[in-house]
Amino acid sequence: MASITTKLLHHLALFLFLVQLTGPVLASKIKSHAALKPQPPSTYIVHANHLAKPPHFATLEDWYHSIVAAHSPRPTNTSRILYTYDTVMQGFAVQLTGDEARRMSGTPGVAAVYEDEMFYLQTTRSPGFVGLDPKNGAWNETNFGDGVIIGFIDTGIWPESSSFSDNGLGPVRASWKGKCVDADDFNASLCNNKLVGAKAFRAGRAGSKICGGVPSPRDKDGHGTHVSSTAAGAEVPDAGLHMFSRGTAWGLAPKARIAMYKACDIDGCSGADIIAAVDAAVKDGVDIISMSLGGQPRSFHSDAIAIATFGAERNGVFVVLAGGNAGPGASTVINTAPWMATVGAATVDRLFPSNLTLGNGAVLAGQSLYAMQAKGTAMMPLVFSGSPGDWTPDTVMGKIVVCMDGATDAHGILLQNAGGAGIVGVDPREWSRDGTTAYAFTLPGLALSYTAGEKLRAYMASEPNPVGSFSFGCETVISKNRAPVVAGFSSRGPNQIVPELLKPDVVAPGVSILAAWSGDASVSGDFVDGRRTAYNIISGTSMACPHVAGIAALIKKKYPSWTPAMLRSALMTTAWTIDNRGRRIRDNGATADLNDGVRVATPLVAGAGYVHPDLALDPGLVYDAGKRDYVDFLCALNYTAEQLRLFVPDFVRCTRTLAGGPAGLNYPSFSVVFDNGTAIRTLTRTLTKVSEEAETYNVIVKTPKHVKVTVTPTTLVFNEPNERKSYSVEFRNEARGNRKTEWGFGHISWENENHRVRSPVACHWQN
């Protein structure tokens, strides 16, 4: 989720994506420690090539069991294999010692052995802000996404929520193979024609104990309930958090169906469990998988999640993942494979205003979800926070405590228990000069931006006895702020793994999003917080990801035969680059002013732009790609045949050269790297016509600085549906050794009176 969140500090597991407990390690690189004390077992994912199964084994599972018995003998009569994978990849998960994993990696037919890792989880107004209207447009055109099935790999679901009502829905399609499972605290009868599947996966947690033997898909955390209702929640009148953001709550595809695959909890998600969930979701027949989680970027051949999602894409399933919350630093975006839709977070035009009036009369504007109105409290002493451990009645009683490093609602609970009268949290990050996040404080409190915080700091330094007063209107203000703005916490490019592939792909609403919440989770997420709510407001790229999953469901409803690449292209080439003031979308995380003082969100920050469902339903042209294109892409990365067989078990050798290297993949964006004195890069793209009428498109080019761009041809004429036309783009480096030039941005757009098919361009000089 987010490095700025609306929840508790211990929700860093849900909002940061910053740290992994352990990385995937090829077992061939695991050192032997036989001379030391016995090694505790860990979970390992064994990736097998099923085509190499010896013929004397009747089934793959028989073969897998023999491998385990040979290389990890234990006195047991029960199976030690935790999962077998047979759809998105072939293999199994098992608990091994490091030495056993090392030996197993040398077994014929075993392609790789990875030590399991942990991954971390990263709305009344947002559907309206992106243009969805119950009376016309995309919702009417697609019957609200009726029948499309979205699979969520997350923390589970709270089935009693009104957002999962199936009123007005017909039965799920006959081809659906999923189901709901019974557990101690989850009755399968709670499922219906909206919630059509609910399963849990927990065997990957070494040493985990499951009460009753059956893991429950019930959501104890709130995250899975929130994201699934964001994408596909039913219409719920008068929803809100207290009096905030009240109105009719809708998912982005209100009639789409939900299948929950619980593989996560507040501590994160096991890679072995995630792969089992992806495997089950594809086998069950989902159309879309939404995964608001991620870990450290790594080469695709050593990333089991990348391999599993490749398998999902190969089976026609569109996969969308959160881009991470480690912004605004460069090269922080995660989930960067080309067969994934990678989503960053941006704002909607909604604020929750509150004010702090200082003793000198200055008024500092902030945001708060404090649930009591007050036109102006009494003036109270202002003090800097110190450590929360030092908050005692002697130090904070009757005072407003100022936290210059930020404060969440969890801090507020601690301060209230110590007798504090109020709390002010200041965003400490200078890049967040005009951004702030709202928290549901239990005592009078608000959050201030860095800019407002500096004014507060100066006042407190100039006064021997500084005082302040709060004003709370308990308001939700719409359309008065400039939006969208890319959130500073949203991770950004360039892509660490493949600089020639631009990521993130798009941005979507991810700040202060209202959606359904678990009845077992508090408002803040803290165990000492006794407050419960049916709907909650939180932030992060975790919230942006299901917005795109929901929009993809609308597109899938209209075009059921489209490939995942076509869906992704429609989302990207129609995305907004202009905000509600008619100006270029801003970046709240920019460390320096760009373009004459305007902090513009570049393609490294916003990808192709802010998703627009109505336009995405009529893109005119799309960039398609499939298994062979991705194999050519991996070949261009110089992956070995052994590494490529992790993705395509029957791979023999690279037979085609991708012109332009990895940048030559038929992708809806361009990332051009000038290195080693390169003067010219030439790339080719192919467009497929998806509109019915004959059309002629002319190219419009905005060239990056220091680059000459030549597109050939400049006109494309399409006469028939599904007709394909190719064009080439020559990027000529004219920087002339200018060492100050690092990145340049532009776009290539094919346009006529009905359609605009826009691709962002990013050029990089490596000196």
TrEMBL record:
One of its GO terms (molecular function) is serine-type endopeptidase activity. GO terms for biological process: proteolysis. The active site is at D154 (charge relay system), H223 (charge relay system), S542 (charge relay system). Residues 145-583 form the Peptidase S8/S53 domain. Keywords: Hydrolase, Protease, Serine protease, Signal. It comes from the Eukaryota. Residues 665-762 form the Subtilisin-like protease fibronectin type-III domain. Residues 43-121 form the Inhibitor I9 domain. Residues 1-27 form the signal peptide. Belongs to the peptidase S8 family. This is Subtilisin-like protease fibronectin type-III domain-containing protein. It comes from Panicum hallii.
